[in-house]
Protein backbone atom coordinates (compact mmCIF):
# COMPACT_ATOMS: atom_id res chain seq x y z
CA UNK A 1 0.00 0.00 0.00
CA UNK A 2 1.44 3.42 -0.97
CA UNK A 3 2.29 5.47 2.12
CA UNK A 4 0.83 8.90 2.82
CA UNK A 5 3.19 11.82 3.22
CA UNK A 6 2.93 13.90 6.41
CA UNK A 7 4.49 17.32 5.91
CA UNK A 8 5.42 18.88 9.24
CA UNK A 9 5.36 22.68 9.17
CA UNK A 10 4.87 24.92 12.22
CA UNK A 11 3.31 21.99 14.12
CA UNK A 12 6.30 20.13 15.56
CA UNK A 13 4.57 17.64 17.83
CA UNK A 14 2.83 14.27 17.66
CA UNK A 15 0.06 15.09 20.15
CA UNK A 16 -3.16 16.64 18.93
CA UNK A 17 -1.81 16.58 15.40
CA UNK A 18 -4.81 16.24 13.09
CA UNK A 19 -2.75 15.84 9.90
CA UNK A 20 -0.72 12.98 11.38
CA UNK A 21 -3.82 11.32 12.82
CA UNK A 22 -5.67 11.45 9.49
CA UNK A 23 -2.67 10.10 7.59
CA UNK A 24 -2.14 7.29 10.12
CA UNK A 25 -5.75 6.20 9.68
CA UNK A 26 -5.03 5.60 5.97
CA UNK A 27 -2.05 3.25 6.53
CA UNK A 28 1.75 3.68 6.53
CA UNK A 29 3.23 7.17 6.69
CA UNK A 30 6.36 9.04 5.64
CA UNK A 31 7.23 12.05 7.82
CA UNK A 32 8.95 15.05 6.24
CA UNK A 33 10.20 18.45 7.33
CA UNK A 34 11.77 20.75 4.73
CA UNK A 35 14.25 23.51 5.52
CA UNK A 36 13.57 25.97 2.71
CA UNK A 37 16.44 28.36 1.86
CA UNK A 38 13.94 30.86 0.44
CA UNK A 39 12.12 31.06 3.76
CA UNK A 40 15.38 31.61 5.63
CA UNK A 41 16.61 34.20 3.13
CA UNK A 42 13.58 36.39 3.83
CA UNK A 43 14.06 39.60 5.81
CA UNK A 44 11.93 38.39 8.72
CA UNK A 45 14.06 35.28 9.43
CA UNK A 46 16.76 35.12 12.10
CA UNK A 47 19.25 32.64 13.44
CA UNK A 48 17.38 32.40 16.76
CA UNK A 49 14.32 31.11 14.86
CA UNK A 50 16.51 28.59 13.10
CA UNK A 51 18.23 27.33 16.26
CA UNK A 52 14.89 27.04 18.04
CA UNK A 53 13.57 25.10 15.05
CA UNK A 54 16.55 22.70 15.08
CA UNK A 55 16.06 22.06 18.80
CA UNK A 56 12.36 21.35 18.20
CA UNK A 57 13.07 19.09 15.22
CA UNK A 58 15.65 17.09 17.17
CA UNK A 59 13.06 16.30 19.82
CA UNK A 60 10.39 15.45 17.27
CA UNK A 61 12.83 13.11 15.50
CA UNK A 62 13.50 11.27 18.79
CA UNK A 63 9.76 10.98 19.49
CA UNK A 64 9.24 9.38 16.06
CA UNK A 65 12.26 7.12 16.49
CA UNK A 66 10.83 5.82 19.77
CA UNK A 67 7.79 4.74 17.79
CA UNK A 68 9.95 2.94 15.25
CA UNK A 69 9.78 5.73 12.69
CA UNK A 70 11.88 8.42 11.19
CA UNK A 71 11.63 12.16 10.51
CA UNK A 72 13.24 13.02 7.22
CA UNK A 73 14.68 16.53 7.32
CA UNK A 74 15.45 17.71 3.81
CA UNK A 75 16.75 21.05 2.65
CA UNK A 76 15.81 22.74 -0.61
CA UNK A 77 12.88 23.82 -2.69
CA UNK A 78 9.71 22.16 -1.46
CA UNK A 79 8.26 21.10 -4.80
CA UNK A 80 11.67 19.79 -5.99
CA UNK A 81 11.84 17.61 -2.89
CA UNK A 82 8.27 16.41 -3.41
CA UNK A 83 9.23 15.49 -7.00
CA UNK A 84 12.32 13.55 -5.88
CA UNK A 85 10.29 11.66 -3.34
CA UNK A 86 7.42 11.05 -5.73
CA UNK A 87 9.84 9.55 -8.28
CA UNK A 88 10.77 6.92 -5.67
CA UNK A 89 7.39 6.47 -3.99
CA UNK A 90 4.38 7.77 -5.92
CA UNK A 91 2.31 8.72 -2.87
CA UNK A 92 -1.31 9.70 -3.47
CA UNK A 93 -2.02 11.74 -0.32
CA UNK A 94 -0.23 14.66 1.33
CA UNK A 95 -1.29 15.68 4.84
CA UNK A 96 -0.42 18.93 6.59
CA UNK A 97 -1.86 21.65 8.77
CA UNK A 98 -3.05 24.92 7.28
CA UNK A 99 -0.46 27.63 7.71
CA UNK A 100 -1.06 31.37 7.85
CA UNK A 101 2.49 32.41 7.18
CA UNK A 102 4.33 35.22 5.45
CA UNK A 103 4.33 36.03 1.73
CA UNK A 104 7.07 33.46 1.03
CA UNK A 105 5.22 30.52 2.58
CA UNK A 106 1.94 31.70 1.03
CA UNK A 107 3.49 31.53 -2.46
CA UNK A 108 5.13 28.22 -1.63
CA UNK A 109 1.78 26.76 -0.56
CA UNK A 110 0.32 27.89 -3.88
CA UNK A 111 3.21 26.12 -5.68
CA UNK A 112 2.58 22.97 -3.63
CA UNK A 113 -1.13 23.09 -4.54
CA UNK A 114 -0.15 23.30 -8.25
CA UNK A 115 2.35 20.48 -7.86
CA UNK A 116 -0.29 18.27 -6.22
CA UNK A 117 -2.74 19.08 -9.01
CA UNK A 118 -0.19 18.14 -11.67
CA UNK A 119 0.73 14.86 -9.94
CA UNK A 120 -2.76 13.80 -8.94
CA UNK A 121 -1.86 13.96 -5.24
CA UNK A 122 -4.69 14.85 -2.85
CA UNK A 123 -3.50 17.51 -0.37
CA UNK A 124 -5.46 17.36 2.87
CA UNK A 125 -4.99 20.51 4.95
CA UNK A 126 -6.46 20.76 8.45
CA UNK A 127 -6.72 23.82 10.70
CA UNK A 128 -4.52 23.78 13.78
CA UNK A 129 -5.80 27.04 15.27
CA UNK A 130 -9.23 28.62 15.52
CA UNK A 131 -8.45 30.36 12.23
CA UNK A 132 -10.95 29.83 9.44
CA UNK A 133 -9.89 29.59 5.81
CA UNK A 134 -12.17 31.37 3.34
CA UNK A 135 -14.13 32.93 6.19
CA UNK A 136 -17.33 34.48 4.90
CA UNK A 137 -17.89 36.95 7.76
CA UNK A 138 -16.72 37.74 11.27
CA UNK A 139 -20.14 37.44 12.95
CA UNK A 140 -19.91 33.74 13.76
CA UNK A 141 -16.16 33.63 14.15
CA UNK A 142 -16.07 33.52 17.93
CA UNK A 143 -18.44 30.54 17.91
CA UNK A 144 -16.22 28.76 15.42
CA UNK A 145 -13.16 29.43 17.62
CA UNK A 146 -14.99 27.92 20.59
CA UNK A 147 -16.00 24.90 18.50
CA UNK A 148 -12.39 24.40 17.47
CA UNK A 149 -10.91 24.56 20.96
CA UNK A 150 -13.68 22.41 22.48
CA UNK A 151 -12.97 19.37 20.33
CA UNK A 152 -11.14 16.65 22.23
CA UNK A 153 -7.35 16.67 21.93
CA UNK A 154 -6.15 13.90 19.65
CA UNK A 155 -3.86 11.31 21.22
CA UNK A 156 -0.70 10.26 19.39
CA UNK A 157 -2.05 7.83 16.78
CA UNK A 158 -0.79 4.31 16.25
CA UNK A 159 1.82 4.80 13.54
CA UNK A 160 2.99 2.43 10.87
CA UNK A 161 6.02 3.72 8.99
CA UNK A 162 7.17 3.23 5.47
CA UNK A 163 10.95 3.02 4.85
CA UNK A 164 12.30 6.38 3.76
CA UNK A 165 13.45 6.03 0.13
CA UNK A 166 15.91 8.96 -0.10
CA UNK A 167 19.33 9.39 1.56
CA UNK A 168 19.23 11.47 4.74
CA UNK A 169 20.84 14.89 4.34
CA UNK A 170 22.33 17.09 7.05
CA UNK A 171 20.48 20.21 8.10
CA UNK A 172 22.44 23.22 6.81
CA UNK A 173 24.27 25.35 9.35
CA UNK A 174 22.89 28.85 9.74
CA UNK A 175 25.78 30.44 7.77
CA UNK A 176 24.82 28.33 4.75
CA UNK A 177 21.38 29.91 4.91
CA UNK A 178 22.93 33.38 5.06
CA UNK A 179 21.69 34.09 8.57
CA UNK A 180 23.36 36.63 10.84
CA UNK A 181 24.98 34.47 13.56
CA UNK A 182 23.54 36.39 16.52
CA UNK A 183 21.53 34.08 18.77
CA UNK A 184 20.29 35.66 22.03
CA UNK A 185 22.25 33.89 24.79
CA UNK A 186 19.28 33.90 27.19
CA UNK A 187 16.56 32.85 24.78
CA UNK A 188 14.10 30.04 25.49
CA UNK A 189 15.04 26.59 24.19
CA UNK A 190 12.94 24.70 21.67
CA UNK A 191 11.11 21.39 21.92
CA UNK A 192 7.92 19.96 23.34
CA UNK A 193 9.43 18.94 26.66
CA UNK A 194 10.47 22.52 27.33
CA UNK A 195 7.04 23.72 26.21
CA UNK A 196 5.26 21.38 28.61
CA UNK A 197 7.51 22.42 31.49
CA UNK A 198 6.76 26.09 30.77
CA UNK A 199 3.01 25.37 30.58
CA UNK A 200 3.02 23.49 33.88
CA UNK A 201 5.04 26.09 35.72
CA UNK A 202 2.60 28.72 34.48
CA UNK A 203 -0.60 26.84 35.27
CA UNK A 204 0.43 25.53 38.67
CA UNK A 205 2.64 28.32 39.91
CA UNK A 206 3.19 31.55 37.98
CA UNK A 207 -0.37 32.30 36.80
CA UNK A 208 -1.13 34.01 40.14
CA UNK A 209 1.14 36.85 39.00
CA UNK A 210 -0.53 37.25 35.60
CA UNK A 211 -3.11 39.89 36.54
CA UNK A 212 -1.14 42.95 37.47
CA UNK A 213 2.22 41.43 36.55
CA UNK A 214 2.25 41.41 32.76
CA UNK A 215 2.76 45.11 32.02
CA UNK A 216 5.99 45.81 33.87
CA UNK A 217 9.08 44.50 32.07
CA UNK A 218 10.39 43.56 35.52
CA UNK A 219 7.61 41.18 36.53
CA UNK A 220 6.45 40.13 33.05
CA UNK A 221 9.17 37.55 32.30
CA UNK A 222 7.78 35.32 35.06
CA UNK A 223 4.17 36.60 35.20
CA UNK A 224 3.48 35.98 31.50
CA UNK A 225 3.06 32.40 30.36
CA UNK A 226 6.12 32.50 28.02
CA UNK A 227 4.36 30.00 25.77
CA UNK A 228 4.53 32.10 22.61
CA UNK A 229 7.52 30.40 20.88
CA UNK A 230 6.04 26.95 21.58
CA UNK A 231 2.75 28.05 20.03
CA UNK A 232 4.53 29.65 17.08
CA UNK A 233 6.31 26.42 16.14
CA UNK A 234 3.50 24.17 17.32
CA UNK A 235 5.39 22.17 19.95
CA UNK A 236 2.12 22.48 21.89
CA UNK A 237 -1.30 22.78 20.30
CA UNK A 238 -3.49 25.75 21.10
CA UNK A 239 -6.27 23.35 21.99
CA UNK A 240 -4.24 21.42 24.53
CA UNK A 241 -3.25 24.68 26.21
CA UNK A 242 -6.90 25.81 26.38
CA UNK A 243 -7.97 22.41 27.78
CA UNK A 244 -5.23 22.36 30.41
CA UNK A 245 -6.07 25.94 31.43
CA UNK A 246 -9.79 25.27 31.72
CA UNK A 247 -9.11 22.11 33.72
CA UNK A 248 -6.89 24.01 36.11
CA UNK A 249 -9.46 26.81 36.41
CA UNK A 250 -12.14 24.29 37.33
CA UNK A 251 -9.87 22.67 39.93
CA UNK A 252 -8.98 25.91 41.75
CA UNK A 253 -10.73 26.52 45.08
CA UNK A 254 -13.33 29.30 45.19
CA UNK A 255 -11.02 31.63 47.14
CA UNK A 256 -8.17 31.42 44.61
CA UNK A 257 -9.46 34.57 42.94
CA UNK A 258 -6.09 35.91 41.89
CA UNK A 259 -5.10 32.76 40.06
CA UNK A 260 -8.56 32.46 38.52
CA UNK A 261 -8.32 36.02 37.22
CA UNK A 262 -4.88 35.24 35.83
CA UNK A 263 -6.02 32.14 33.99
CA UNK A 264 -9.12 33.90 32.67
CA UNK A 265 -7.02 36.77 31.32
CA UNK A 266 -4.61 34.28 29.80
CA UNK A 267 -7.48 32.42 28.06
CA UNK A 268 -8.56 35.70 26.46
CA UNK A 269 -5.07 36.06 24.99
CA UNK A 270 -5.34 32.60 23.46
CA UNK A 271 -8.48 33.84 21.74
CA UNK A 272 -6.67 37.00 20.57
CA UNK A 273 -3.92 34.78 19.18
CA UNK A 274 -6.35 33.41 16.59
CA UNK A 275 -8.30 36.66 16.23
CA UNK A 276 -5.14 38.40 15.01
CA UNK A 277 -3.94 35.54 12.81
CA UNK A 278 -7.39 35.50 11.21
CA UNK A 279 -6.75 39.05 9.95
CA UNK A 280 -3.71 37.95 7.96
CA UNK A 281 -5.48 34.79 6.82
CA UNK A 282 -8.36 36.90 5.46
CA UNK A 283 -6.09 39.64 4.09
CA UNK A 284 -2.52 38.44 3.32
CA UNK A 285 -1.64 41.87 1.93
CA UNK A 286 -1.61 43.36 5.42
CA UNK A 287 1.95 42.11 5.77
CA UNK A 288 2.95 44.68 3.16
CA UNK A 289 0.27 47.35 2.84
CA UNK A 290 -1.63 49.62 5.18
CA UNK A 291 -4.83 47.90 6.22
CA UNK A 292 -6.66 51.18 5.62
CA UNK A 293 -5.31 52.45 2.33
CA UNK A 294 -6.31 55.99 3.22
CA UNK A 295 -3.08 56.01 5.25
CA UNK A 296 -0.92 55.23 2.21
CA UNK A 297 1.82 57.83 1.97
CA UNK A 298 1.54 58.83 5.64
CA UNK A 299 5.10 57.83 6.53
CA UNK A 300 6.42 56.04 3.45
CA UNK A 301 8.12 59.09 1.93
CA UNK A 302 9.66 60.40 5.17
CA UNK A 303 12.06 57.53 5.87
CA UNK A 304 14.76 58.51 8.38
CA UNK A 305 17.60 55.99 8.34
CA UNK A 306 19.42 57.75 11.20
CA UNK A 307 16.41 57.24 13.48
CA UNK A 308 16.09 53.62 12.45
CA UNK A 309 19.80 52.86 12.96
CA UNK A 310 19.69 54.46 16.41
CA UNK A 311 16.58 52.46 17.36
CA UNK A 312 18.10 49.16 16.25
CA UNK A 313 21.34 49.95 18.09
CA UNK A 314 19.49 50.83 21.31
CA UNK A 315 20.72 54.43 21.00
CA UNK A 316 17.51 56.47 21.09
CA UNK A 317 18.59 58.15 24.31
CA UNK A 318 15.35 57.18 26.12
CA UNK A 319 16.62 54.69 28.67
CA UNK A 320 13.53 52.48 28.85
CA UNK A 321 13.46 52.11 25.06
CA UNK A 322 17.18 51.34 24.84
CA UNK A 323 16.93 48.86 27.74
CA UNK A 324 14.10 47.05 25.91
CA UNK A 325 16.20 46.76 22.75
CA UNK A 326 19.04 45.30 24.81
CA UNK A 327 16.74 42.84 26.57
CA UNK A 328 15.46 41.69 23.19
CA UNK A 329 19.01 41.20 21.98
CA UNK A 330 19.87 39.08 25.01
CA UNK A 331 16.62 37.10 25.39
CA UNK A 332 14.54 37.28 22.18
CA UNK A 333 11.46 38.18 24.21
CA UNK A 334 9.67 41.26 25.51
CA UNK A 335 6.24 41.64 27.07
CA UNK A 336 3.29 43.05 25.15
CA UNK A 337 3.36 46.50 26.75
CA UNK A 338 7.02 47.07 25.99
CA UNK A 339 6.61 45.78 22.41
CA UNK A 340 3.75 48.23 21.95
CA UNK A 341 5.84 51.04 23.44
CA UNK A 342 8.80 50.29 21.15
CA UNK A 343 6.55 50.40 18.09
CA UNK A 344 4.82 53.54 19.32
CA UNK A 345 8.17 55.31 19.77
CA UNK A 346 9.22 54.18 16.30
CA UNK A 347 5.92 55.20 14.71
CA UNK A 348 5.29 58.58 16.38
CA UNK A 349 8.27 60.59 17.68
CA UNK A 350 10.69 58.82 15.31
CA UNK A 351 8.07 58.75 12.53
CA UNK A 352 9.21 55.46 11.00
CA UNK A 353 7.07 53.39 8.66
CA UNK A 354 5.98 50.09 10.24
CA UNK A 355 7.22 47.73 7.55
CA UNK A 356 11.04 48.03 8.03
CA UNK A 357 10.57 48.33 11.80
CA UNK A 358 8.38 45.24 11.73
CA UNK A 359 10.97 43.24 9.79
CA UNK A 360 13.63 44.17 12.31
CA UNK A 361 11.34 43.25 15.23
CA UNK A 362 10.32 39.99 13.54
CA UNK A 363 13.98 39.00 13.69
CA UNK A 364 14.22 40.07 17.34
CA UNK A 365 11.14 38.15 18.50
CA UNK A 366 11.77 34.44 19.01
CA UNK A 367 7.99 33.94 18.87
CA UNK A 368 7.54 35.67 15.49
CA UNK A 369 4.06 34.76 14.27
CA UNK A 370 3.25 36.71 11.08
CA UNK A 371 -0.50 37.02 11.69
CA UNK A 372 -0.11 38.50 15.16
CA UNK A 373 2.98 40.47 14.35
CA UNK A 374 1.86 42.38 11.28
CA UNK A 375 -1.60 43.07 12.66
CA UNK A 376 -0.03 44.45 15.83
CA UNK A 377 2.57 46.46 13.92
CA UNK A 378 -0.19 48.21 12.01
CA UNK A 379 -2.42 48.61 15.03
CA UNK A 380 0.33 50.22 17.11
CA UNK A 381 1.31 52.45 14.16
CA UNK A 382 -2.22 53.75 13.60
CA UNK A 383 -2.78 52.43 10.06
CA UNK A 384 -5.66 50.02 10.63
CA UNK A 385 -8.20 52.82 10.69
CA UNK A 386 -10.28 50.93 13.28
CA UNK A 387 -8.22 51.19 16.46
CA UNK A 388 -7.75 54.42 18.38
CA UNK A 389 -4.00 55.02 18.07
CA UNK A 390 -2.19 54.51 21.35
CA UNK A 391 0.82 56.72 21.83
CA UNK A 392 3.08 55.60 24.65
CA UNK A 393 5.37 58.10 26.32
CA UNK A 394 8.57 56.17 27.18
CA UNK A 395 9.35 58.41 30.16
CA UNK A 396 5.91 57.95 31.69
CA UNK A 397 6.09 54.21 30.98
CA UNK A 398 9.42 54.08 32.82
CA UNK A 399 7.94 55.82 35.88
CA UNK A 400 4.85 53.58 35.81
CA UNK A 401 6.52 50.23 35.19
CA UNK A 402 10.10 50.58 36.41
CA UNK A 403 9.71 53.10 39.24
CA UNK A 404 13.01 52.20 40.94
CA UNK A 405 14.94 51.82 37.69
CA UNK A 406 15.84 48.15 38.24
CA UNK A 407 15.01 47.24 34.67
CA UNK A 408 16.92 50.13 33.10
CA UNK A 409 19.97 49.53 35.29
CA UNK A 410 19.92 45.82 34.57
CA UNK A 411 20.04 46.20 30.79
CA UNK A 412 22.03 49.44 30.58
CA UNK A 413 24.99 48.89 32.90
CA UNK A 414 26.39 52.37 32.14
CA UNK A 415 23.39 53.80 34.04
CA UNK A 416 23.89 51.76 37.20
CA UNK A 417 25.19 54.60 39.34
CA UNK A 418 22.78 57.26 38.05
CA UNK A 419 20.28 58.20 40.81
CA UNK A 420 16.56 57.76 40.25
CA UNK A 421 16.03 61.50 39.81
CA UNK A 422 17.97 61.52 36.53
CA UNK A 423 17.64 57.94 35.39
CA UNK A 424 14.84 58.28 32.85
CA UNK A 425 15.93 61.69 31.51
CA UNK A 426 19.73 61.60 31.80
CA UNK A 427 20.21 64.35 29.19
CA UNK A 428 18.95 66.81 31.81
CA UNK A 429 21.81 65.92 34.14
CA UNK A 430 24.47 68.67 34.57
CA UNK A 431 27.99 67.80 33.42
CA UNK A 432 29.44 67.69 36.95
CA UNK A 433 26.83 65.12 37.99
CA UNK A 434 27.51 63.08 34.87
CA UNK A 435 31.18 63.00 35.88
CA UNK A 436 30.25 62.05 39.45
CA UNK A 437 28.02 59.15 38.34
CA UNK A 438 30.40 57.92 35.66
CA UNK A 439 28.15 58.43 32.66
CA UNK A 440 28.65 60.77 29.72
CA UNK A 441 25.47 61.61 27.86
CA UNK A 442 26.20 61.44 24.16
CA UNK A 443 28.65 58.58 24.71
CA UNK A 444 27.56 56.07 27.35
CA UNK A 445 23.94 56.82 26.55
CA UNK A 446 22.83 58.71 23.45
CA UNK A 447 21.29 62.18 23.42
CA UNK A 448 17.61 61.77 22.48
CA UNK A 449 17.17 61.89 18.73
CA UNK A 450 14.29 64.36 18.86
CA UNK A 451 12.43 66.50 21.37
CA UNK A 452 9.93 63.89 22.54
CA UNK A 453 7.04 66.22 23.30
CA UNK A 454 7.35 68.25 20.12
CA UNK A 455 7.92 65.28 17.78
CA UNK A 456 5.02 63.34 19.30
CA UNK A 457 2.69 66.34 18.97
CA UNK A 458 3.64 66.78 15.32
CA UNK A 459 3.10 63.08 14.65
CA UNK A 460 -0.24 63.17 16.34
CA UNK A 461 -1.34 66.18 14.31
CA UNK A 462 -0.46 64.41 11.06
CA UNK A 463 -2.25 61.22 12.04
CA UNK A 464 -5.34 62.76 13.58
CA UNK A 465 -5.55 65.24 10.71
CA UNK A 466 -5.99 62.28 8.39
CA UNK A 467 -8.34 60.39 10.70
CA UNK A 468 -10.82 63.27 10.54
CA UNK A 469 -11.15 63.21 6.76
CA UNK A 470 -14.54 61.96 5.54
CA UNK A 471 -12.94 59.59 3.00
CA UNK A 472 -10.88 57.96 5.78
CA UNK A 473 -13.91 57.60 8.03
CA UNK A 474 -15.87 56.16 5.13
CA UNK A 475 -13.34 53.34 4.73
CA UNK A 476 -13.58 52.24 8.36
CA UNK A 477 -16.89 50.40 8.25
CA UNK A 478 -15.69 47.83 5.71
CA UNK A 479 -12.58 47.12 7.81
CA UNK A 480 -14.62 46.69 11.00
CA UNK A 481 -16.96 44.37 9.10
CA UNK A 482 -14.07 42.23 7.84
CA UNK A 483 -11.66 42.30 10.77
CA UNK A 484 -13.35 43.75 13.85
CA UNK A 485 -13.86 41.56 16.83
CA UNK A 486 -17.34 40.66 18.07
CA UNK A 487 -18.56 39.12 21.30
CA UNK A 488 -17.40 38.92 24.85
CA UNK A 489 -13.66 39.40 24.30
CA UNK A 490 -14.37 42.59 22.38
CA UNK A 491 -13.69 45.23 25.01
CA UNK A 492 -10.39 43.73 25.91
CA UNK A 493 -9.28 43.46 22.30
CA UNK A 494 -8.37 47.10 22.10
CA UNK A 495 -5.59 46.19 24.49
CA UNK A 496 -7.12 47.05 27.79
CA UNK A 497 -7.79 50.79 27.77
CA UNK A 498 -8.97 50.59 31.36
CA UNK A 499 -5.52 49.63 32.56
CA UNK A 500 -3.81 52.02 30.16
CA UNK A 501 -5.70 55.18 30.99
CA UNK A 502 -3.62 58.21 30.17
CA UNK A 503 -2.05 56.58 27.14
CA UNK A 504 -4.70 57.58 24.64
CA UNK A 505 -3.30 61.06 24.90
CA UNK A 506 0.32 62.08 25.01
CA UNK A 507 0.44 61.59 28.75
CA UNK A 508 3.10 64.23 29.37
C1 LIG B 1 4.24 45.05 17.86
C2 LIG B 1 3.88 43.70 18.45
C3 LIG B 1 4.30 42.56 17.81
C4 LIG B 1 3.97 41.30 18.32
N1 LIG B 1 4.42 40.18 17.66
C5 LIG B 1 4.10 38.97 18.14
C6 LIG B 1 4.55 37.80 17.47
O1 LIG B 1 5.24 37.86 16.46
N2 LIG B 1 4.23 36.58 18.00
C7 LIG B 1 3.45 36.49 19.13
O2 LIG B 1 3.18 35.36 19.58
N3 LIG B 1 2.99 37.58 19.76
C8 LIG B 1 3.29 38.82 19.31
N4 LIG B 1 2.83 39.92 19.97
C9 LIG B 1 1.84 39.77 21.06
C10 LIG B 1 2.40 39.62 22.49
O3 LIG B 1 3.28 40.65 22.78
C11 LIG B 1 3.06 38.27 22.69
O4 LIG B 1 2.19 37.24 22.29
C12 LIG B 1 3.40 37.99 24.14
O5 LIG B 1 4.24 39.01 24.64
C13 LIG B 1 4.09 36.63 24.25
O6 LIG B 1 4.41 36.32 25.56
P1 LIG B 1 3.58 35.21 26.37
O7 LIG B 1 3.45 33.96 25.59
O8 LIG B 1 4.20 35.12 27.70
O9 LIG B 1 2.16 35.93 26.44
P2 LIG B 1 0.88 35.65 27.35
O10 LIG B 1 0.41 36.97 27.87
O11 LIG B 1 1.13 34.59 28.32
O12 LIG B 1 -0.21 35.21 26.29
C14 LIG B 1 -0.42 33.85 25.90
C15 LIG B 1 -0.50 33.75 24.41
O13 LIG B 1 -1.57 34.54 23.90
C16 LIG B 1 -1.20 35.14 22.66
N5 LIG B 1 -1.20 36.60 22.83
C17 LIG B 1 -0.85 37.30 23.91
N6 LIG B 1 -1.01 38.63 23.71
C18 LIG B 1 -1.47 38.74 22.45
C19 LIG B 1 -1.85 39.85 21.65
N7 LIG B 1 -1.79 41.10 22.09
N8 LIG B 1 -2.28 39.61 20.40
C20 LIG B 1 -2.37 38.35 19.92
N9 LIG B 1 -2.03 37.26 20.64
C21 LIG B 1 -1.60 37.46 21.89
C22 LIG B 1 0.19 34.63 22.33
O14 LIG B 1 0.06 33.48 21.53
C23 LIG B 1 0.74 34.27 23.69
O15 LIG B 1 1.74 33.28 23.65
C24 LIG B 1 3.17 41.21 19.49
C25 LIG B 1 2.76 42.37 20.14
C26 LIG B 1 3.12 43.60 19.62
C27 LIG B 1 2.68 44.84 20.33
Automatic annotation (TrEMBL):
Domain Photolyase/cryptochrome alpha/beta: 2-131
Pfam families: DNA_photolyase, FAD_binding_7
InterPro entries associated with the record: Crypto/Photolyase_FAD-like_sf, Crypto/Photolyase_N_sf, Cryptochr/Photolyase_FAD-bd, Cryptochrome/DNA_photolyase_1, DNA_photolyase_N, Rossmann-like_a/b/a_fold
Record keywords: FAD, Flavoprotein
Ranges where the record places region Disordered: 173-192, 480-508
Cofactor: (6R)-5,10-methylene-5,6,7,8-tetrahydrofolate; FAD
Gene3D superfamilies documented for this protein: 1.25.40.80, DNA Cyclobutane Dipyrimidine Photolyase, subunit A, domain 3, HUPs
Protein name: Deoxyribodipyrimidine photo-lyase
Gene source species: Actimicrobium antarcticum
